[in-house]
Amino acid sequence: MASPNVRNILRLPGRLVAAPTNLLAAYPHGGVELGVVRDVEFRPGIKASLVTAEEYGGVVTEAIYAGEAPILACVLRSFDNDLIERLFLNTSVPVVSGASGDRIILGRASGAGVNRAGTLRDASAIVLLFTPKNVDMHPMVLIRRAIPMVEETAALALSLSQELGLGLVFYCAPDSSGRTYDVGKRQDLTL
């Protein structure tokens, strides 16, 4: 094992990419840029079942790996049409004269063509890549099948004193080969 070195401490500013096709290519690696984000966190969600010993007062004597429920969470700082369309079940593009062309988020409980509660989100799944600014030195996070969702307690700050931001969660679901994620340097990862 190498000796600890403070030079190995990392700060990882980066960006999100949907459907990358070539990790060795320049950003966005053949994929689609997904808006400006901040506070990106990857949480492996490793679960354990603890074995305790009653004879020792309930002290833990063993831990059993019980799987993972990984997610990538972040705050979206910009309204990105590609991501908004995947995050919200009900969106549209305005057709009125002089419209911006940007997506509208539609809060709907029912109606013609409305996705209602209980709608499966699998159709929104994407291959998601967190690509650091320093792609050659810092690790990437490649999520094989990410299901994008708005974080349940997310709020839009409509204020002059705070930046507009929307909390997002990407649930890491297994792909057809059972893979959920890879974390590593780009030259070590394969799509």
Structure in words:
- This protein has one helix and twelve strands; from the N terminus they run ββββββαββββββ.
- The mean pLDDT is 92.
- The chain has 191 residues and is mainly β.
- Helix content is 4%, strand content 37%.
- It has one helix at 81-87, and strands at 14-18, 32-33, 37-43, 46-53, 59-68, 71-76, 91-92, 104-105, 126-132, 140-150, 166-172, 181-184.
- A hairpin with a 5-residue loop joins strand 4 (46-53) and strand 5 (59-68).
- Strands 1, 2, 3, 6, 9, 10, 11 and 12 form an eight-stranded antiparallel beta sheet that branches. A two-stranded antiparallel sheet has the order 4-5.
Secondary structure elements and their pairing?
Elements: E1 14-18, E2 32-33, E3 37-43, E4 46-53, E5 59-68, E6 71-76, H1 81-87, E7 91-92, E8 104-105, E9 126-132, E10 140-150, E11 166-172, E12 181-184
Antiparallel strand pairs: 1-2, 1-9, 3-6, 4-5, 6-11, 7-8, 9-10, 10-11, 10-12
Unreliable stretches covering 5 or more consecutive residues:
none
Helix content: under 10%
Profile the largest sheet.
8 strands, antiparallel
Strand content: 35-45%
